[in-house]
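Structure ticket #2291
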Amino acid sequence: NSLTKSSHYDGLETYKPENLVFMLNPLSQDLNCMRQTLLFGSLESVLHNINHRNPDVKLYEFGNTYKKEAPNKGQKLQGYTEELHLSMVISGLKQQPNWITREEATNFYYIKAYAENVLKRMGLNPEKFKVEEFSNDIFAEGLNYSLNNKVLLTLGLLNRKLLQRADIKTPVYYADFNWEVVMAAIKNNKIVFEELPRFPEVRRDLSMVLARDVKFEQLRTVAQKTEKSLLRRISLFDVYEGDKIEQGKKSYAVSFYLQDTTKTLTDDQIDKIMNNLAKAFERELGAQIRA
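Resolution: structure written out below.
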């Protein structure tokens, strides 16, 4: 229901109560305004499932959100904004355990994979977006995906205080797509079919020590800037922070996947690319490359 109760928004900074669109003649206090976000409907559904002994929840919803703001030229209805959003929420176990799969709870990377797969199915490459970490009164830890300074996806672990207000005691992970921004991003996309590559992909790993505040996204940006033609993707497969490493530092182990679609890469080419990447990490991020 697009109608909701205004008390959901009491004391929030991300979704301010003053931006609510109130009904002039509400049916009840529980249906006295229009929703600014799909989040609270999702939490009500999670709680309903938990209370009915179905704690392992994976839900999605398409729906409009509404916001009252300063008038803007070009708006159909001055002072109000209506946007189409897609929400995704998960909680509980990834799947029911059995003899071959162990019990494993959902986590941050699970919602991240779900959300990024949606972008990929829409013809968008998540690695091309600007990705920023953040936290606020909604997310304890989250990521913002933006393109041309417009946020099209926000995801992460919901704030514990927010969950307590909703009477939910288990971790909940949430993703919110601004679907109108997503559709604008794919407007000029062309679907192109390519034959499968005939030449093998090569994987090389690098282990390095970095300052603790250096993010993986910074590594990705430096790598893509350094090797634009043959670097297909990179992935982080190990992070270590502990007493065996200098205080304020962390160790990253990263895989780099290289491929030439026209010929097989030689060892000399691969070594040159990896040396260039290592030097770029040392120069731009202060990395110490480990043997």
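Closing remark: The two ends are 58 Å apart (CA to CA).
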